[in-house]
Design goal:
UDP-N-acetylmuramoyl-L-alanine:D-glutamate ligase, 26 strands, 15 helices, six-stranded mixed beta sheet, 3 domains, Udp-n-acetylmuramoylalanyl-d-glutamate--2,6- Diaminopimelate Ligase, Chain: A, domain 1, alpha/beta, 25% strand
Length: 492
């Protein structure tokens, strides 16, 4: 039980009905979970408005309603009604208070940007843990609390769940948390209720713009910038064209990183490495930190991710040796993840599932000395057909050979999706073959691999399922690769 006044301490509100002298037994924002004596937050969602369930919540025993608009209640009901400007904003602060402000007991690191968030958070976690810190993680793939790994529903969870995760991290003995912060989360106030110690900006490209996300690029940029009004130190990629706009009205100290000479922490002398099929980059670091480093992930964008992690860890007095070791050990499931098959060629899994991401991935891999660049991918069903045309065109232009296969067909015919991709690839001179069964497509690539080839299996990344007509069947790209190699007597 907690006093209502304690939960409302950091909010502006009007008590429209009832008394503030109440004890609250639980904080709830799902009308199906209302219990006697709870505080019920009326959240207006995309498909359901919690205000419509206010009377039902009171009937079930809710002691307090937090609303942002009028609700119809019987005059005799014994309930306290609190009016706020935004119930989502209020939920973040109420949740933080309910869990005794756990973020104050952690060093909090938030990473925002269009690309690189996931990899950067894992790199930071790897470096800090090598230095003896106990680090929790919240991101697109999973939430990590000690030895517990929880499948992620959203990149950044709803504020109540986020505060619950923080609370569990404190109980588990974590001293630090690193998390991905999506533009949607910032727009919907999921990260209110605490101040980040550090905020990181990776880059910005047109994405997540549409009816259910951001109305235009300006809105997308604005939401990203909100992180830098909610952190003590901002660390930003100054090679990105939008970094000054993102930090324009910031309230934090700002540090920069990048490959340009203007960066506070910079990398140069990049050398692309290939150690028995494992791609990486070696580079020199100067400015705020002086050292040589190597990251066991390919491409220039991996160097940017490494720099962001190094910029954070500099504030923790992490030794250069710990940084070097962690950069070589860090792996991110489904993000330019190398799967060992043969020392003669490279096999990589990546989450690239739209034209922008696939273009970036293939452009990066082309910088390496290699035989052929082979791209295996499909597209999801019940999604824009334009994505299929665009991804086909990108692969046809940048890959030496494309194997078109299935992804998550959902309720569409997989062959129809494949044909849409073919329409895009035919705009180029790129060679291709269609193998709709993903397992057979992987086997085809292994059978036809030549020394020096780079084979990239794109689209699903960390996902371990294939969705067909509403059913998710287990399917993991790693397992497909390993099975194909084993069936051919290949071991590495």
């Amino acid at each position: 039980m907690k006093p209502l006044k304690t939960l409302l301490a950091h909010l502006e509100f009007v008590c429209e009905r009832g008394s503030l002298d109440r004890q609250v037994s639980a904080v709830v924002h799902d009308s199906r979970k209302v219990t006697a004596g709870c505080l019920f937050l009326c959240i207006a969602g995309a498909n359901f408005d919690g205000h419509d369930a206010a009377a039902e919540a009171v009937e079930k025993g809710a002691a307090v309603l937090v609303t942002e608009k009028e609700t119809a209640l019987a005059a005799q009901e014994d309930v306290t009604v609190i009016r706020v400007a935004s119930t989502r904003y209020a939920m973040a602060h109420i949740a933080a208070a309910w869990f005794d402000h756990p973020a104050k007991k952690l060093t909090t690191i938030g990473v925002t940007g269009t690309k690189g968030k996931t990899t950067t958070t894992y790199l930071i976690k790897s470096i800090l843990e090598n230095a003896g810190k106990k680090v929790g993680l919240v991101g697109t793939i999973e939430v990590i609390i000690g030895d517990t790994h929880i499948h992620a529903g959203n990149t950044t969870p709803e504020s109540y769940l986020l505060q619950e995760y923080f609370h569990r991290m404190v109980q588990e003995g974590c001293d630090t948390v690193v998390m991905e912060v999506s533009s949607q989360a910032l727009m919907l106030h999921r990260t209110q209720g605490f101040l980040f110690d550090f905020g990181i900006f990776t880059n910005l490209e047109a994405d997540h713009i549409g009816p259910n996300e951001h109305q235009d690029f300006a809105d997308y940029l604005h939401c990203k910038s909100l992180l830098f009004r909610q952190c003590r130190v901002g660390i930003v990629n100054c090679d990105d064209a939008h970094w000054r706009q993102v930090t324009k009205d910031c309230t934090c100290a700002v540090e920069t990183y990048g490959l340009s000479q203007d960066a506070d922490l910079r990398a140069d002398g990049l050398s692309f490495t290939n150690d028995d099929g494992h791609l990486g980059v070696a580079f020199c670091v100067s400015g705020l930190l002086h050292m040589r480093a190597k990251i066991a992930m390919p491409g220039r964008f991996s160097v940017y991710n490494a720099l962001a992690a190094m910029a954070i860890c500099r504030h923790f007095d992490v030794s250069r040796e710990d940084i070097r070791r962690a950069l070589l050990l860090a792996k991110v499931r489904g993000r330019i993840e190398t799967v060992p098959v043969s020392p003669d060629y490279t096999v990589i899994i990546d989450y690239a599932h739209n034209a922008m991401a696939l273009n970036s991935l293939l452009t990066t891999l082309r910088e390496y000395e290699h035989g052929r660049l082979i791209c295996i991918f499909g597209c999801g069903g019940n999604r824009s057909r334009d994505r299929r045309f665009e991804m086909g065109e990108v692969s046809g232009r940048l890959a030496d050979f494309t194997i078109i296969t299935s992804d998550n067909p959902r309720f569409e015919d997989p062959n129809a999706i494949v044909e849409d991709i073919v329409t895009g690839i035919r705009k180029t001179d790129g060679a291709y073959v269609t193998v709709p069964d993903r397992k057979e497509a992987v086997a085809y690539a292994i059978d036809h691999a030549r020394p020096g080839d780079i084979i990239v299996l794109a689209g699903k990344g960390h996902e371990d399922y294939q969705e067909i007509r509403g059913v998710k069947y287990h399917m993991d790209d790693r397992e497909l690769i390993e099975a194909a190699a084993a069936e051919r007597g290949i071991s590495f």
